[in-house]
Amino acid sequence: MSEQNLPTQENAMGLVFTEWFPESTGLSFRIVQTIESAQSPLQMIELYETETHGKLLVMDGCVMLTERDEVAYHEMIVHVPLLSHPNPKRVLVIGGGDGGTLREVVRHPSVELARQVEIDGEVVRICKEHLPKIAAAYDNPKVDLIIGDGIEHVKTAPDGSYDIVLIDSTDPFGPALGLFGEEFYRNVDRILADDGIMVCQAESAWYNMPMLKVIVETLQKIFPVVKTFSSQIPVYPSGTWSFGYASKGIDPVADVDQERAEPIEEGGQYYNRDLHKAAFAQPSFVKRELGL
Amino acid sequence: MSEQNLPTQENAMGLVFTEWFPESTGLSFRIVQTIESAQSPLQMIELYETETHGKLLVMDGCVMLTERDEVAYHEMIVHVPLLSHPNPKRVLVIGGGDGGTLREVVRHPSVELARQVEIDGEVVRICKEHLPKIAAAYDNPKVDLIIGDGIEHVKTAPDGSYDIVLIDSTDPFGPALGLFGEEFYRNVDRILADDGIMVCQAESAWYNMPMLKVIVETLQKIFPVVKTFSSQIPVYPSGTWSFGYASKGIDPVADVDQERAEPIEEGGQYYNRDLHKAAFAQPSFVKRELGL
Fold first, then answer.
1. What is the CATH number of the domain that holds B24?
2. Residue A171: predicted pLDDT
3. Quick one: CA dihedral A7, B206, A215, A153, positive or negative?
4. What is the pLDDT of residues B120-129, one digit of tens each?
5. Are residues B105 and B41 both part of a single domain?
6. How far is B238 from A240, CA to CA, in rounded Å?
7. Of A240, A264, A273, which to mutate for an interface test with B (greatest number of B Cβ within 10 Å)?
8. Cross-chain residue pair A18–B27, CB shorter than 8 Å
9. 8 Å CB contact between A78 and A166
10. Residues B76 and B26 in one domain
11. Strand, helix or coil at B82?
12. What pLDDT sits at residue B263?
């Protein structure tokens, strides 16, 4: 937790939760009530009912999601890689305990296995209980939930055993730190099939360029195709979030298969094929910093 | 001013300025000092030195810009229309008293006249004095600054007298309200040449869809080509801001002239041709609401 982040406070607005981003701004929500406040062995998990954003999930003082805009994150981290791949069958999600990423993965008819390795069972428990529209896929027969260490899983999984790996982690502190290192990404590369694709959340280009740069440079040592794409996430620092994209050859901005994309678009609220391509266009300062 | 917006407050973070967005979140900045706090006849104008975003300009309690990210707004409101137009010579800016829009307009060699009609001379005075990198073009010989009412100006300007009209206004309250109405847009249409283009700031699709919808529907009554595009603006509500684009025929996403675009890109920090096209791709919920 950032030392600067204050717990909820009473002020003239009533009860307010604020996340202060390092070297940046603070984002506040008006709180109606605290639903859960649980210290798991790994992190502090808080769930609030807000006045304007539905439920708000906070981990170690950082906003993870709100019900109002979670679709933007979950649709983009999933549909960009799964619709870039010709036939994704075996999908691994590291982290993502809220279940939103899994919910989008199982919407793809080609998927036979949606395996999630989440390190903190408390997150899954709280989200299944209080966020049923997000944690909606845990009973799906395609889903295999493992409560365990994602770093260990990618070390021991067989070569070429996944078509897609999605790193839906918290920020690069505490339990998630090892999910941003070279050894981890080398194992991801090894367990991906020859047409495999990896996507990871990769921080804000406005407020954490050094971290985004490290992620891109590390991926470039390992994968022949490395790009970044972004999504509007109003409740994350700067409102625009970056994702790292790496593959053994598949270009994410080639034309997407219309027949597979249409039902995904029609059943969703954020992703569409125009936005899929557009998300890879980056501001000049980002292109220059990343050399992409 | 929103009644909910508090003045700067001392708390455990030190001196903090917070803008609470209606029906939404609050965004806070750590304040080093107040540089100006002036009540003009039209509005309250405040200029702060922040810890992390350089200077912060606030009008009637709403964040107008910070030095850290103003380029994203100013480059996009200008270069998208001016590089969509084949030969923009006569440009009218309504509002934009900070000067950032003018600064980008005069970078186009084709521009012969950059006329700005700003209703509040105090804004221009404060920005010339304290924000010289933004209010950088007021001495340029192409610039004609009129302190006056933009609504009156578009009523009385001759037919077809501008190639481009940019509405760089505050939010649709108080002095800016008339800049969002049908009569105003009909006059903008009248004073534009046959290949004319108009761009206006158009609020957040996440947090003020009703206003964005009214703007688009009003423009559609008048102009044959109406679209919206967006820019990342970390210090505006939701972090993504919409602009309305209207023309008498010019499509903004056709190929942009490379020879004119290159020096604009090289001398800037945000705009590039890929982003120009990408900015018109909208999330599905926006496309559905706007019917675009």
1. 2.30.140.10
2. 79
3. positive
4. 999 999 999 9
5. no
6. 9
7. A240
8. no
9. yes
10. no
11. helix
12. 98
Section B78-104 average pLDDT? 98
Least Cα distance to B67 among B111, B35, B91 occurs for B35
Say whether A141 sits in a helix, a strand or coil. coil
The two beta strands, B192-201 and B162-168, are: parallel
Distance between A197 CA and the closest CA of chain B, angstroms: 23
| Total number of domains in chain B | 2
Rounded to the nearest angstrom, the minimum Cα separation between A242 and chain B is: 12
CB nearest to A25's CB, from B29, B275, B280: B29
Encoding tokens for residue A145? 């939930």
Nearest to B281 among A237, A269, A274 (CB): A274
Classify each residue of A116-131 as buried b or exposed e, where b means 16 or more C-beta atoms within 10 Å of its C-beta.
bbbbbebbbbbbbeeb
Interatomic CA distance for residues A63 and B116, integer angstroms: 42
DSSP-assigned letter for residue B224: S
pLDDT for position A5: 58
CB–CB contact A27 B29 (8 Å)? no
Residues A132 and A166 in one domain: yes
Tens of pLDDT, residues A11-57: 777 899 999 998 889 999 999 999 999 999 999 999 999 999 999 99
In the 8-state DSSP scheme, what is residue A180? G
Q: Which of B224, B11, B184, B220 is nearest to A7 (CA)?
A: B11
> Per-residue pLDDT averaged across B219-224, rounded?
97
Please indicate, yes or no, whether residues A98 and A45 belong to a single structural domain of this protein.
no
Q: Which residues of B touch A58 (CB under 8 A)?
A: none
Mind giving me the DSSP string for A105-125? HTTSTT-SEEEEEES-HHHHH
Residue B95 forms part of a structural domain: yes
Q: What domain range is B100 assigned to?
A: 70-290
Q: Are B245 and B223 in contact (CB under 8 A)?
A: no
Residue B77 DSSP SS3: helix
pLDDT score, position B254: 81
For the stretch B114-168, pLDDT in tens is 999 999 999 999 999 999 999 999 999 999 999 999 999 999 999 999 999 999 9
Whether residue A211 lies inside any domain: the answer is yes
Residue B101 DSSP SS3: helix
Tokens representing B84 are 């969509």
Query: Which of B232, B269, B287 is closest, CB to CB, to A284?
Result: B269
* Two tokens, residue A154: 């990618």
On the 0-12 / 13-18 / 19+ scale of CB atoms within 10 A, A209 is middle
Report the largest interatomic distance among the alpha carbons of chain A, rounded to a whole angstrom.
57
Instruction: Answer whether A280's CB lies under 8 Å from A253's CB.
Output: yes
Asked whether A158 and A80 are in contact (CB, 8 A), the reply is: no
Q: Is the pTM of this model over 0.90?
A: yes
The 3-class secondary structure across B151-215, one letter per residue, is HHHHHHCCCCCEEEEEEECCCCCHHHHHHHCHHHHHHHHHHEEEEEEEEEECCCCCCCHHHHHHH
